[in-house]
Design goal:
Length: 242
């Protein structure tokens, strides 16, 4: 039924469309991911100004007609995140965070917790662009897995419940595994296991850190969990650096 909806939204992507328009991928608290067209946004006198760029948090009125594509009627800025935009590392982590949300939560199912998690991540990167570390990026993804109902089992073997000698990780099994259940697993160091536990248990602003090899194992655990249980391929959590 046609009508207008007022909603907060985070701009995940902003694509040029035609002469002067943009297609936006928005993440909203109660309507999940939606696509909307903003008309005339690339004209110099557009009423939208520059606020339909990625990472803006907006309050928008969207008109819903018969098409799946909504139309942006008005948009006001709640957070522009200007400091985040001045840091290449923070921009990279923010872009990959938005991409992970778009892949794991691609539908209009409401996940208010995901909206708040992404809001928090962008606010954190804006308040302190130096927070854009691999540890932060991976902790964000662990929390996304939880929001998707895919939290990996970390306290006991995901196959048999054994609580000792948890030295492997299996995406198919859904978490850490013991040596008897290690088929299809890869070796997970104690540091990587500790990182995953800390990333789940601590607030995003206090994301743990770990050495490069533990972080690489943690990233593989997250990637394989998303592949096996959500059939989603996540890109790398951080760039390969300068
Ligand atoms: Zn086992």
């Amino acid at each position: 039924m046609p009508g207008s909806v007022k909603t907060e939204a985070i701009v995940l992507r902003s694509l040029r469309y035609g002469e002067a328009d943009r297609i936006l991928h928005l993440y909203t608290p109660r309507r999940g991911r939606v696509s909307a067209i903003a008309k005339g946004v690339r004209r110099s006198k557009s009423r939208f100004g520059g606020r339909l760029e990625p990472f803006f948090r907006l309050e928008a009125v969207l008109y819903e007609g018969r098409s799946e594509l909504l139309t942006v009627t008005t948009a006001s800025t709640l957070e522009a995140h200007p400091r985040l935009r001045e840091s290449a590392a923070a921009l990279d982590v923010a872009a990959r965070a938005c991409d992970a949300v778009a892949r794991l939560f691609a539908t209009d199912d409401p996940h208010p917790g995901v909206y708040h998690l992404l809001s928090n991540e962008l606010a954190l990167l804006d308040a302190d662009p130096a927070a854009a570390t691999a540890g932060n990026a991976l902790a964000f993804r662990m929390k996304l897995l939880v929001a998707a109902g895919l939290a990996p089992q970390l306290a006991a073997c995901a196959s048999c419940g054994e609580r000792e000698h948890l030295s492997g990780f299996s995406g198919a099994a859904g978490g850490v595994v013991c040596p008897s259940c290690e088929a299809g697993s890869f070796s997970l160091s104690q540091d990587a296991h500790d990182f995953l536990v800390g990333a789940l248990g601590q607030p995003l602003a206090e994301a743990p850190s770990a050495g490069p090899s533990a972080l690489a194992q943690a990233e593989r655990a997250i990637r394989e969990t998303a592949e096996h249980h959500a059939h989603v391929r996540l890109g790398a959590a951080v760039g390969s650096g300068p």
